[in-house]
Amino acid sequence: MRITRIDLREIRLELISAFETSFGRTTSRRIILVQVFDEAGECGWGECTAPEGPFFSHEFVDGAWEVLERFLIPMVLGRTVDAASEIGELMTRVRGHGMARGGLEAACWDLDARRRGMPLWKLVGGHNPEIACGVSIGIQPSVAVLLEKVELELAAGYRRIKLKIKPGLEREIAESARSRFPSATISVDANSAYRLEDIALIQALDDLQLLMIEQPLDADDLVDHATLQREIRTPLCLDESITSASQARRALDLGACRIINIKLGRVGGFAEAKAIHDGCQARGVPVWCGGMLESGIGRAHNIALSTLPGFTLPGDVSASRRYWQRDIIHPEVRVSPQGTITAPENPGLGFEIDSDYVEQVTGRRLSRST
Questions:
Q1: What is the model's pTM?
Q2: Do 264 and 290 meet the contact criterion of CB atoms below 8 Å apart?
Q3: How far is Cα 271 from Cα 262, in angstroms, rounded to an integer?
Q4: Can you state the angle between helices 296-306 and 98-116, rounded to 10 degrees?
Q5: Which residue, among 284, 279, 201, has the nearest Cα to 247 in the 3D structure?
Q6: SS3 call for 216
Q7: Strand ordering across the sheet containing 160-164
Q8: How far apart are alpha carbons 192 and 239 in whole angstroms?
Q9: Distance between alpha carbon 351 and the CA centroid of its chain, in Å?
Q10: What CATH code is assigned to 5-117+354-369?
Q11: Does 162 participate in catalysis according to the annotation?
């Protein structure tokens, strides 16, 4: 397929309720959507998951837009490839900026699947069309409010509850949830809020039968995570620290974690995500799909990724209505009462883009063609 045109547009969506983590509070999302076109006019869609500010990582919306416009689009536009799996190789000169690269690469995978008349999840190599779903619950104004939200999500069928924590609140949050819901599958996520000197705070969670403790230490750290993992029984899961298959291999070699969270944007797209998945599967290490408050387009890509056989833990792929009054796809992503999502059988993403609504919420746009 030959890439003859690439469009960017920035949309803005308001969250139903604020989402708070250890590094900030989000009430709305500015999202870059990527469209790629082939010589026949067929179109594929991707989403750049960069947040508004450079806090989760160095990437943010305005920076990603510039990287796409100045560097990545010229590397891909006009090029001919046999398959979307080759797109990532065209962008290897750019260091980092996985979310920008991942949004463009994902759009090419959608285009490739549409051209072949097959669902994206099958093109990716998925085997499990019914995926287990979990939810991520941000820091709440009180424990009582938090427990109400956990109860609602469990009643909706979600199979894993992830609680955001930060220093000074970790034990209260996790212990309250475990006491109220003794049989629930619960994990916690620190988003790099702790230091190795805080080891006692993390060790205090060891008796709560948590599924995992996600990314407690610095995003660029593996060594201290390995030290921490030796001092606690609960499995550590790495998120921000895992930016490539080689970094995942190093983390596992060092013993820095026992579980890995794979995010398409953070690792630069499907090709790298699949390489991480394959490496973990060969070593018997479970993986799961993390979320970045995506619109329906990014959510659909996450569904496809989650059908790979190594994704044995419930991911952050939840229903559209948890976040948006109106999503930009139809039908919206829905979760069954059993806490599962079934990957669609239609070609590509398997969802239709709500073009009228996308147009309504679009701010800036850019189009480049051969």
A1: 0.95
A2: no
A3: 12
A4: 70
A5: 279
A6: coil
A7: 134-137, 160-164, 186-189, 213-214, 236-238, 259-262, 287-289
A8: 9
A9: 18
A10: 3.30.390.10
A11: no
- Catalytic entry in 149, 162, 166, 263: 263
* Cβ–Cβ < 8 Å for 232, 255: no
Residue with tokens 């044995």: 312
Which residue is it, tokens 């969250």? 15
**CA–CA separation, 227 and 40 (whole Å):** 54
Cα angle vertex 225, ends 136, 194, to 5°? 60
pLDDT tens per residue across span 110-149 = 999 999 999 999 999 999 999 999 999 999 999 999 999 9
Domain with CATH 3.20.20.120 in the chain: 123-342
End-to-end alpha carbon distance in the chain:
14
pLDDT at 18: 77
Q: In terms of CATH, what superfamily is 123-342?
A: Enolase-like C-terminal domain (3.20.20.120)
Give me the catalytic one of 149, 164, 166, 274. Answer: 164
Residue 25 has pLDDT above 80, yes or no: no
